[in-house]
Amino acid sequence: MREKLRMGMVGGGNGGNIGNSHRRGSAMDNLAVLTAGSFTRNPEQNLKDGQFWGVSPDRIYANYEEMAEAESKREDGIDFVSIVTPNQTHYPIAKCFLEHGINVVCEKPMTLYVDEAEEIAALAARKNLEVCIPYTYAHYPAIRECRELVASGKIGKVIDVIAEYPQDWMILGLNNDEDDFTKWIGDPAYSGESNVTGAMGVHLFYLIQAATGLKIEKVLADFGYYPEDAPLETISRVLFGLDNGAHGIAWTSNVATGHDCTMFLKVFGEKGSIEWSHEDMTHLHVSYLNEPVQILSANRSYMSDFSKAACRLPTGHPEGFYEAYANLYHAFCACLLDRANGIEKDASAYYYPHVQDGLAGVRYVKACVESHKKGNVWVSLDNPGNQA
Questions:
Q1: Which domains does the chain have, with CATH numbers?
Q2: By C-alpha distance, which of 290, 246, 279 is closest to 142?
Q3: Which of 3, 134, 294, 384 could tie 366 with a disulfide, CB 3.0–4.6 Å?
Q4: What would the pLDDT profile of 212-229 be if each residue is shown by its tens digit?
Q5: pTM for the structure as a whole
Q6: How far apart are CA 1 and CA 295, in angstroms?
Q7: What is the pLDDT of residues 153-199, one digit of tens each?
Q8: What three-state secondary structure class fits 383?
Q9: What's the rounded Cα separation, in Å, for the pair 265 and 209?
Q10: CA separation for the pair 189, 244 (Å, rounded)
Q11: Which of 45, 18, 15 is nearest to 324 (CA)?
Q12: Mean pLDDT of 39-53
């Protein structure tokens, strides 16, 4: 019986934050071991990073093409690869590894364009391979509890959802000549048709759906730009329509001075409401009609089994960003291990964002772009080129 998976990584070198998050999250439950990689285009740094993380020098590759080819031919080749590279490279790298029969974890957005995302989804289905998209914020225990509360009917029918995700890293970077990240994330050659909606807005898109169990069907978007001549938006204001008939709003900005990673979610129902903040990610504030506000704490006995299954520490010990990554990797690795061991379960047994969620995120970004271009009109996610 296989108990651990062999993991590869493309990108993540040079001290990148997201690469570290993937490595630590994937290792937390001892289900995967980093075995191969192509971590950076700098040959010396690539070798140095790989050896520091315990990867054998013969499995540190100069590029992802060489890595996919070599690993696919080994009896002990990697079971999956994690792609943590700039946005415009996600599509060719994911396609390459899928074509070589290797499962994929791919940072969001999965691709820059809808046709690319559709191709990746079709390829994964044809090859019977799994693709996981790290919509990380939706995998805190408190967000799982929010989903359970909505599903139970305790707050009644959802009638309004407010989601916010402000940060200030872009405006800081634009005022720092040495900041390279803000240069490429705001460049259409690297980010396609969207900056903040594709980089951060997709997180809100998936978070809203994960927390409520509802689907976003249409959007009406209005973009803001800083500086005014920026080629891609730095502020995204999106009205959205849910499949239960309710509407809501998602605001995202990377030029919101004074905000670190200040994500908020508010779900209002006919009988009550639920509020969550990323800066206090272990708690939910729940209100019922004409009752005192309740504060629910992660991993308390009164929480649902679904929520408690995502906890590793006793109540009061904060579990944060790395643990949210670990929850994604735990479910993804459990799926691959069950397959390797001949255990068959329904896909719903593994709670992580699948390739169709990645495709939906790309369609959301496209729909928002089209809505803004057409003068702030409603656009359907099923067909982002048409008005809803």
A1: 5-132 (3.40.50.720), 138-317+361-380 (3.30.360.10)
A2: 279
A3: 384
A4: 999 999 999 999 999 999
A5: 0.95
A6: 43
A7: 999 999 999 999 999 999 998 887 766 566 778 889 899 999 999 99
A8: coil
A9: 11
A10: 38
A11: 18
A12: 95
